[in-house]
C-alpha cells in the first residue's frame, strides 16, 4: 500500500511527532510505502515529494515546526470541489500510485479529507490545531503547547505588572474559540479571560480591574484575538486577509489597554503573543498525543477505515467519522465560561 502524507493549514507543535508515529507504524509494521508532500497541496500539485521511512523521521518528535512544511494552498483550483476538479485530483493520485492519504490539519483540512473520502478518494484525518476548536476529539495536538507558552507569558507579565502597579493585557490566539485564553488564564491565575464566545462591556472589564486594585494587586487580563466588546462592530483586524480569505485578526489588546486606562486611571500595557504560541518544541503531552494519533491513523489505513479521524476520547484514541469532526466548531460552552467568570476581578 502506498500512502501520501500531507500537512495543511497553520503549523502546530506536534506535527513532526504525528508524522513519525504514522511512518514508524505504517512502514515498519504494515509494510507501507509512504510519500510526504512538501508544503501541503503545493507539493502535491507540483510533484514535490519525499519518501518517508524510519531514517527520514529519526529524532523529529521534539522538533517544532514540521519537516514537510505546510501551507494554505487549496487542493482544488479556486478552492471549489467541482466534479472536474475531483477528476483531476483522482488522475494525479493515480499518477503517484497512491492508495490513500493521511491528512494532518485543522478544520479546513479535515473538511477536505471528508470531501475526498465522500468522493471515493481514501483519506484519514489527523487533527492538529492550537485553537482546540475541532469536533470529534477532546484535544488536538498543539493546544497544550500553546497554553503552556501563554501561561509562561502570564507568569512573566505578572511580575513586571506588579512591580509597576500596572494592568497587563495579554492577547493570545483564538479566532472563534477561546480555549487558549481560558486555559492559559486559569493556569496563570489571570483576573479576567475574555473570549470570542462571550462579549463583555468595557465597563464590566474596568470594574474587574478596579476590584483587583482595591485588594492591593495588579490585574492581568487575557484576551483572545477574536474577542469583541459589547456594542462594537466586530473583531479587531490588522488589515488584509489570511490564507483562507478571512480578515486578519489582531490588536484587540492594543484597543483594550487605553480604554481600561481611561476608565480606571491605572497605567495599562498590552502584549500580543502572536506566533510565539506556535513555535518551539512541543510539550510532552503533545508529543505523546501526536504520536498516538499517527499510530492510530496508520492502523486505520491498514484496516481500510477511510473517512475517519483519529480523535482523543478520554484517554483513548478512537477513529471517528469525519462528519463528526467538521460539522461545527468546538467552542467554549457557556457553563465553562461562567464557572470561571464568577471569580473574575
TrEMBL record:
Site annotation Important for substrate specificity: residues: 108
InterPro entries according to UniProt: ATP_PFK, ATP_PFK_prok-type, Phosphofructokinase_CS, Phosphofructokinase_dom, Phosphofructokinase_III, PKF_sf
A Gene Ontology BP annotation from the UniProt entry: canonical glycolysis
Binding, ATP: 10, 72-73, 106-109
Location(s) in or outside the cell: Cytoplasm
Protein origin, superkingdom: Bacteria
Enzyme Commission no: 2.7.1.11
Catalytic activity entry: beta-D-fructose 6-phosphate + ATP = beta-D-fructose 1,6-bisphosphate + ADP + H(+)
Pathway: Carbohydrate degradation; glycolysis; D-glyceraldehyde 3-phosphate and glycerone phosphate from D-glucose: step 3/4
Cofactor section: Mg(2+)
Top-level EC class as recorded in UniProt: transferase
Cellular component GO terms, alphabetical: 6-phosphofructokinase complex
Binding locations of Mg(2+): 107
Keywords for this protein: ATP-binding, Cytoplasm, Glycolysis, Kinase, Magnesium, Metal-binding, Nucleotide-binding, Transferase
Domain Phosphofructokinase: 2-300
Family according to the record: Belongs to the phosphofructokinase type A (PFKA) family. Mixed-substrate PFK group III subfamily.
HAMAP family in the cross-refs: Phosphofructokinase_III (MF_01976)
Protein name: ATP-dependent 6-phosphofructokinase
Source species: Leucobacter massiliensis
Species classification: Bacteria, Bacillati, Actinomycetota, Actinomycetes, Micrococcales
Gene (name only): pfkA
Amino acid at each position: 500500500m502506498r500512502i501520501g502524507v500531507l500537512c495543511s493549514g497553520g503549523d502546530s507543535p506536534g506535527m513532526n511527532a504525528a508524522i513519525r508515529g504514522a511512518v514508524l507504524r505504517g512502514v515498519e509494521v504494515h509494510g507501507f510505502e509512504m510519500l510526504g508532500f512538501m508544503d501541503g497541496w503545493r507539493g502535491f500539485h507540483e510533484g514535490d515529494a519525499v519518501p518517508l521511512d524510519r531514517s527520514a523521521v529519526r529524532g523529529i518528535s521534539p522538533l517544532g515546526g514540521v519537516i514537510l512544511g505546510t501551507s494554505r494552498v487549496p487542493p482544488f483550483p479556486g478552492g471549489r470541489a467541482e466534479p472536474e476538479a475531483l477528476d483531476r485530483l483522482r488522475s494525479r493520485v493515480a499518477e503517484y500510485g497512491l492508495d490513500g492519504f493521511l491528512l494532518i490539519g485543522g478544520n479546513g483540512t479535515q473538511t477536505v479529507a471528508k470531501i475526498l473520502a465522500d468522493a471515493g478518494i481514501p483519506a484519514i484525518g489527523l487533527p492538529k490545531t492550537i485553537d482546540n476548536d475541532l469536533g470529534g476529539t477532546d484535544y488536538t495536538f498543539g493546544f497544550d503547547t500553546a497554553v503552556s507558552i501563554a501561561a509562561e507569558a502570564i507568569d512573566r507579565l505578572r511580575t513586571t505588572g506588579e512591580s509597576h502597579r500596572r494592568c497587563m493585557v495579554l492577547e493570545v490566539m483564538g479566532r472563534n474559540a477561546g480555549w487558549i485564553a481560558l486555559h492559559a488564564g486559569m493556569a496563570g491565575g489571570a483576573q479576567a479571560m475574555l473570549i470570542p464566545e462571550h462579549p463583555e462591556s468595557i465597563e464590566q472589564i474596568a470594574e474587574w480591574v478596579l476590584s483587583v486594585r482595591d485588594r492591593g494587586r495588579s490585574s492581568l487580563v487575557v484576551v483572545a484575538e477574536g474577542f469583541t466588546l459589547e456594542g462594537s462592530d466586530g473583531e479587531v483586524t490588522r488589515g488584509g486577509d489570511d490564507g483562507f480569505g478571512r480578515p486578519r485578526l489582531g490588536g484587540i489588546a492594543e484597543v483594550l489597554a487605553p480604554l481600561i486606562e481611561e476608565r480606571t486611571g491605572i497605567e495599562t500595557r498590552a502584549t500580543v503573543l502572536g506566533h510565539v504560541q506556535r513555535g518551539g518544541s512541543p510539550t510532552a503531552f503533545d508529543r505523546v498525543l501526536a504520536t498516538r494519533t499517527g499510530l492510530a491513523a496508520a492502523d486505520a489505513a491498514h484496516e481500510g477505515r477511510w473517512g475517519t479521524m483519529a480523535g482523543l476520547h478520554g484517554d483513548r484514541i478512537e477513529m471517528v467519522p469525519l462528519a463528526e469532526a467538521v460539522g461545527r466548531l468546538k467552542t467554549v460552552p457557556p457553563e465553562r465560561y461562567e464557572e470561571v467568570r464568577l471569580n473574575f476581578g
